[in-house]
Amino acid sequence: MESEPTYRRLSSQDLTVVLTVSFTSLLGLCFLFSVPLGATLIVAAMLATILITYGFSSQKTASEIGPEVSSLEAEQHYFEAQANLADNITDAVAIIDQRERVVYANPAAQKLLEITSLGRPLSTYVREHSVKAVIQDALQGKKTDAITYHVETPTESYIRVMASPFTPAIFDPPRPMALLFFYDVTEYNLVDSQRADFLANASHELKTPIASLLGYIETLQGHAKDDPEAREKFLGIMQSQAERMQRLINDLLSLRQIEQVEHIAPSEIADLHLAAKAAIEAEEIYADKRKINIKFETKKKSLVIGHQDELIQLVLNLLDNALKISADETQITISIEFTDRWTPGQAFTANSFTQNASTRRIVPVSTPDKPHYILKIRDQGPGFSREHIPRLGERFYRIAGDLSSKDKGTGLGLAIVKHIIRRHRGGLLIQSAKGEGTEFTVILPASES
Amino acid sequence: MQKLVDHIVSGYDDDLNQLTNSLSELGGLVETMTSDSVRSIKKRDSDLAQKVIEMDKRANSLQEQIDDDALRLMALRHPMATDLRRTIGAIRCANDLERVGDLAEGIARRAVSINQEDKIDLAKGVGRIGKLVKTQLSGALDALLREDADKALQVWIADEDVDEMYNAIFRELLTYMMGDPRTITACASFLFVAKNLERIGDHATNICESVYFTVHGKQLVNDATLQGQG
Ligand SMILES: Nc1ncnc2c1ncn2[C@@H]1O[C@H](COP(=O)(O)OP(=O)(O)OP(=O)(O)O)[C@@H](O)[C@H]1O
Ligand SMILES: [Mg+2]
Fold first, then answer.
1. Which CATH number goes with the domain that contains B166?
2. Mutation test of ligand 1: which of A294, A331, A405 has the most ligand atoms closer than 8 Å to its C-beta?
3. Does residue A135 sit within a domain?
């Protein structure tokens, strides 16, 4: 009994459990679900019904196939068909036994709860006390109400759980189990608090430039009325203030847009290499003007699971910062690498700093086992001093004394970067040494193909 | 064909499951205590603080239960290798979690007295470190329950950020106190809270070290393959 005593990797075989649902519990389920629980629940119940009834009909054919086909083969066909079907259920379904061990989890449940092997107790994945109470009731055959719980990592989300008792017919004596449905209801719960945040942020940050605009208008109406030179100067300042407000509003809007979908990881495929190229092209003129050389040598396609436009915005924000902070005639290096498996120490073993660089994982990687692409942006700017590093990525955090960027920036660039990366289930690291520059490292899950 | 539900469950596996369940419950409890204690300061909610103080009793009794279960398991079943490390790990982690509970209780008690004073706007920094520490604690618990050594390593490394943030808050509060001596009492309370949070972060790293040891059988701090990764 070395490690992993009863735990087993997930396979299509695990679907057997589903076909053991008895007709009575099926009817019970339909009844239970279709009562007052809203449209999503009904759809889920219908999908479950299809899965379960399908399980029954094909169970018969499997046993009717007879001796010509080996029973093993028949079983395999059967499970493949089942696996395809269960893949299509978008809601998360899991079954737990008397000992609260997860004996079945469909792909959606595996993803939502990050289940990697069957046989561990549900409490491995869900620590919420209220959930424990509900499943214990269900295991004792009691009907329970759906409850909603809140998780803060990796992204803030709300999950609604329904548990109903069910007893598979195949066991004698019967073994009562519980069937669990999980729904991500983050959208309904987060929207309100985010809207409030948004309004608070927007009004707070717009107050200062508006006050200063009003101040200039007053001066223009007053003693600067007949002074053409002062008028020109003030109008110039007013224009840049107004432009700053415009940028601020745009940034706030894109931040909010990303926040709203943050709990849904993108499912499409994007090319990180193309994104970097697009970002570089957008900044080329500005970089040339200041004789800053942007070195980007990677030529290969780098396919990640992601949203192309968001990735462009991500690189653009980082590059924009690097350019703003860099002195003329310096160099910015961008590179993309591939790794089979991300290890947290990886970024620090081969770094380009001579002294001990301060480091921080602004967003830690949540799926180190999978292949990733790593994008690095290294500048030769002033670097961060230690005390600023913990606060990077916070909204509106600008570094005081850093006047040029304080004027132009809104302090939302890195917050947007952080949210994009969180949505992509990626990672963001920063390393910086005073006087040597800064390196931002973005780690994104590679697409399978 | 092997069906998981048909597995004969040995009493032994059952005991290990029971340990996981209790650790999960204790973990969930002290997680709530940590975030609620910070929230009771941010929202000036003394009732919430009172609830946190009460939760500590449950945390203590859960820890005792885990200790008893683990000791009984060792005495009756003589676990070997990984299972032995698992059992010892459970005792160690339960101990750390119980301390986290105590520290959160300490914060809640301080919250009650802070909330009686006039409002000063210092809760922000505490909220920040609180959020980070809560993430660390949740990460450590995820690593513990899933026996995920990589995750453990990741959380362990990130403890540096907590220390850095604590130092930043320390400096900030010091500036306040020097600037206006009337804020000294309040600032001292906030310092105490920040220190407790930083120590909760330390217990999260202890848990990570235990997880690493359970999985690999080596001490994280001594693992040669990790040298130089600071
Ligand atoms: N590569 C870098 N090197 C040194 N300091 C940086 C670097 N990138 C960002 N910073 C500092 O971090 C702060 C926050 O950056 P962020 O991108 O969030 O805001 P911003 O650039 O000021 O505004 P925005 O990007 O919204 O226009 C900035 O004040 C800037 O001084
Ligand atoms: Mg920026």
1. 1.20.58.220
2. A405
3. yes
